[in-house]
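ok trying again, last paste got cut off:
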Amino acid sequence: MAGEWLAYGEFGLAVIGLAPFALHRWSCGKWAKAPLVCPDTDSNLAITILLPVWNEGLIIEKKLARLAQQSVKADLLLIDSASSDDTLSKSRNWLEDFPNAFNSHRIITMPKRLGKTAAVMKALDELEGCGGIIFMTDADATIMPGSFERVRRWFSDPQIGAVGGTPQRIGDLDGEKAHRNMYTLLRVGESAHDSTPFLEGSLLAWREGLVASSDLYATANADDAQIATAIRLNGRRSIQDTGLTFQDQMPLTSKEQRRQKVRRGQGLIRLLSRKRKLWFSKKEGRFSKILSRNAWMHILSPLAITGGGILAILRNIAYLPDTNLTVALSAVEVYCLLAWALTRMNKSFFGIRSAGTILCGLENLLVGIIMAGRGKSLHMWDQHSDVRETLANK
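nice, full thing came through this time. structure:
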């Protein structure tokens, strides 16, 4: 009898762990059928570029040059988190050589590296009252031509508070492509329904005054998601635009991609945990459903699948007699194990790719949860040096 409960428990935890992905995927697909349309009217709002940097000496000049090529001229605020390389000297020299690249420019230097979120908080204080649009971008991201114009058009709609870009990843690892395609589908669907709590700092623009430094947590990462969520909670919509794109280079190895996902996942987990009182808030309406679904996927699902995996091991050790349930569970276990292993080795194929992407994602989230539980925050991290070297040589 006890052995049968192992099977029932495994099945129940598997349903709890995987159901939200199917449910939210279906919902977002339905919501995305009525997509948001970018307005034709230009808001003519002034743009201030927020460029947080740390040890970007290999690529900073290219980044500044590409920003200056945008057809709308902007102001620039570069904030440096105590770089130990030549990022600052190269930035200053470039701005001296091209004094008309921006309407104006300022460089703020942090005396000590405290992480990107702390740098963004400092920048928000400096930009308080400037008005217009704050356009944040990462040094390793290439934003598309016309980005400033498209962003200004979005902000002619008074409901829109934040707009994020859609990534076009450079690289050839299928696991990352599948992960990002699924991620984009969910974010676009959430945007059409109400707002998405998760946007990417590689290209993120918002109305100045809708988010303050006090809305962010300095010792947590995912500053971009913190900003998107804060803006929605302050009464405006945060959306991801498929017509506003950026390119960035994926880490070149599966190991480095996993490290990136664990860091990102921990930031989202901590954000959702802090907003737990809003998961079922009637005041937030549709957005509360989006928050609760993401909390289910990012926090409860990794724990449920881990528990189901432990019960699966115990069930197989116990050698339960074959029943319809145990045979079905064994088949599902083999399928899931195969999907996870092949996706982790970047050898997935049609039929297992989605399942493998979800299971590898849950693995990364579990690692993030464990590290957070042990008190290890990932808000400061080592750069992916292979990415910078690749971009510098292009």
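cool. The domain at 36-252 is CATH 3.90.550.10 (Spore Coat Polysaccharide Biosynthesis Protein SpsA; Chain A). Residues 161 and 235 are 8 Å apart (CA to CA).
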